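Tokens in:
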């Protein structure tokens, strides 16, 4: 007798599973899980694929309509961004490819969280040490390639985080973003090496990233405050984030860093300039900010003490 995969028992079991899943979908806890997972995937894609980072419209506003936004430079930076549209106002091929990569990346992130973000309703235990076994090698290659884009954003967010702590915890009489960026690249990893500082990379280039990541810097600071990574960027951090982060806590932290950008008083502020850190046209969070002093300090005291070695960069004479 030929085997029939759809026996009466199989049909009944399928109906039972569908009924159980219908009840599950109505549970507030399950709805929140789905919303949080979707939010974390969305925000990660936004942080890595904000088109304003790489593209700009062909038609630009004149200087009389909108002044350049800067952090600490006095010369308007020459744009290195690619055009979003061509002279015929059609999207460029480069921008279309960028959008395609964004869609593919989102699909891969969503599949990754489907496999590895824990839920109380899925008893399966997936081993993250071998993710290709669950989502495929091609998807993992895509995730590894695109998460590598976050290194510069990570540095900017971490420096913003240190600056917030320096400012709100009154670590210095004259806190500044420059000092925070310097400390990110010079803070010793071990206490006995606090007098032998070896820079990990050039800290000055961090400030140059403001013009590319002005919309997302506070999100990166929130991610770092929540996930507590080391000073060096590791793209696995972003996959840990979408699998482990508490979305509500992340939103509170993002709101807190956004609020910090609003209230921080910039040293040597120029009336003719708008600093990138104060460019607050974009805000997508309505969560109540966490108290600034409840944000965990990312540094130990011997690391803060390293600021005694800081020397302000020499500025060209006017």
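Residues out:
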């Amino acid at each position: 007798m030929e085997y029939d995969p759809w026996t009466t028992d199989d049909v009944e079991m399928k109906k039972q599973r569908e009924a159980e899943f219908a009840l599950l979908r109505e549970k507030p806890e399950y709805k929140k899980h789905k919303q949080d997972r979707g939010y974390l995937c969305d925000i990660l894609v936004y942080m890595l694929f904000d088109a304003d980072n790489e593209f700009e419209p062909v038609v630009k506003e004149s200087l009389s309509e909108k002044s350049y936004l800067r952090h600490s430079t006095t010369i308007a930076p020459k744009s290195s961004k690619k055009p979003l549209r061509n002279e015929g106002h059609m999207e460029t091929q480069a921008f279309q490819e960028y959008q395609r990569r964004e869609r593919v990346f989102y699909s891969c992130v969503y599949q990754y969280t489907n496999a590895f973000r824990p839920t109380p309703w899925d008893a399966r235990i997936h081993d993250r040490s071998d993710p290709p076994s669950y989502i495929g090698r091609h998807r993992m290659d895509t995730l590894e390639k695109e998460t590598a884009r976050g290194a510069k954003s990570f540095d900017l967010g971490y420096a913003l985080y240190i600056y917030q702590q320096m400012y709100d915890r009154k670590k210095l009489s004259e806190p500044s973003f420059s000092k925070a960026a310097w400390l990110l690249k010079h803070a010793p990893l071990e206490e006995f090496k606090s007098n032998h500082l070896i820079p990990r990379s050039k800290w000055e280039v961090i400030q140059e990233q403001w013009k590319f990541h002005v919309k997302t810097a506070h999100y990166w600071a929130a991610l770092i405050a929540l996930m507590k990574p080391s000073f060096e960027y590791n793209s696995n951090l972003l996959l840990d984030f979408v699998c482990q982060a508490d979305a509500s806590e992340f939103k509170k932290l993002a709101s807190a860093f956004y609020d910090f950008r609003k209230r921080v008083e910039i040293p040597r502020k120029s009336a003719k300039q708008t600093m990138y850190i104060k460019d607050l046209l974009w805000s997508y969070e309505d969560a109540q900010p966490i108290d600034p002093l409840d944000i965990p300090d990312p540094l130990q005291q011997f690391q803060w003490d390293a600021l005694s070695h800081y020397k302000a960069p020499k500025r060209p004479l006017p």
